[in-house]
Amino acid sequence: MRLGVLDVGSNTVHLLVVDAHPGARPLPAHSHKAELRLAQLLDGDGAIGSDGVDKLVAVIQDALQAAEDKGVEDLLPFATSAVREASNADDVLARVQAETGVELQVLAGEEEARLTFLAARRWFGWSAGKLLVLDIGGGSLEIAYGLDEEPDAAVSLPLGAGRLTAGWLPGDPPDPEDVRALRRHVRAEIARTVGEFSRFGAPERVVATSKTFKQLARIAGAARSAEGLYVQRELKRESLEAWVPQLAGMTTAERSELPGVSDGRANQLLAGALVAEGAMDLFGVEGLEICPWALREGVILRRLDHMASA
User: Fold this and answer.
1) What would the pLDDT profile of 138-194 be if each residue is shown by its tens digit?
2) Is the bond leading into 259 cis (omega within 30 degrees of zero)?
3) Alpha carbon of 11 to those of 6, 119, 200, 268: distances in Å?
4) What is the pLDDT of residue 133?
């Protein structure tokens, strides 16, 4: 059957259409996305303003039309941290449903981490052993660890690249004092969680998902996306540590000229790099692999599992 996953994230609203059935690998058929940056549209009270909701409704309507055009039989709509943490989340969800007919499922942060872990486990397989999975989104950082398809530990921290950029790095290029303050904040937040994971022992494989990690790996020398999903892509901590001060000294326009960095993500790249560097350092990770599958694929896989058991 043809499934559609509608991901209302902190940076983008992304419709992924796949051909899938239980027991088979989902095959991408179409991708439709729009940059909305909900995480940066929150007002002083933490609410998504009326203009932001107007844009969200319009983007979802466009995605629904794309889903219809591509013959989607079943749509799986969900929202992550930007909607989850908005002070007017209930009002936003009600308006979206009233004007589009879409009932967004708001994923808890831990569930995000669990679904992303499931996707990474299915991609790398059982031979990968104990997995540590890192995912930097626009609004949050997810960390999960385990040997099976359900992780033994999973957490979500408010360390998304978009959120941190908006709240901590107003300058372009940012003030060095702001960068240092953000670095301290990021490491303090991550350090609180390390003990929860270290009691399970060292992972046998560390993997990362998300656009942020893919872009950081690309500027550090990883293969271009055009070379295909199955090319192994790695990010070494040593390379990342060398890039962080360079990114801190660049303007957004200069970052957008780097290989693999889009205009829409360039302003967030430094904050994402500080989170990635902090996580790799505090978890003792010298290098990690980039996983092509992430949250959207996890949602699809979970749905296929439920279909198979029905």
Assistant:
1) 999 999 999 999 999 999 999 999 999 999 999 999 999 999 999 999 999 999 999
2) no
3) 13, 20, 33, 10
4) 98
Separation CA 282–CA 188 (nearest Å): 10
Task: Tell me which residue of 86, 114, 90, 116 sits closest to 104, measured CA to CA.
Answer: 90
- The answer to whether residues 48 and 59 touch, using CB atoms and an 8 Å cutoff, is no
Which is nearest to 185 in space by CA: 280, 282, 247, 274? 274
Residue 208 host element (H or E):
strand 205-209
Q: Is the pTM of this model over 0.85?
A: yes
Three-state secondary structure call for residue 292: coil
Distance (Å, whole) CA 78 – CA 302: 13
Q: Supply 9's token pair.
A: 């994230």
**Residue, of 48 and 23, whose pLDDT is higher:** 48
Give the C-alpha separation, 29 to 257, whole Å: 30
- Residue 150, amino acid: E
Residue 126 DSSP label: G
The DSSP symbol for 266 reads: G
Contact 158, 81 (CB under 8 A): yes
pLDDT band of residue 22 (cuts 50, 70, 90) is: confident
Residues in the chain: 310
What is the C-alpha separation between 232 and 162, in angstroms, rounded?
A: 27
38-52, 102-116, 254-268: segment of lowest average pLDDT: 38-52
Nearest alpha carbon to residue 53 among 23, 94, 11: 94
Tokens 């001060």 -> residue: 245
Q: pLDDT-derived band of residue 41, with 50, 70 and 90 as boundaries?
A: confident
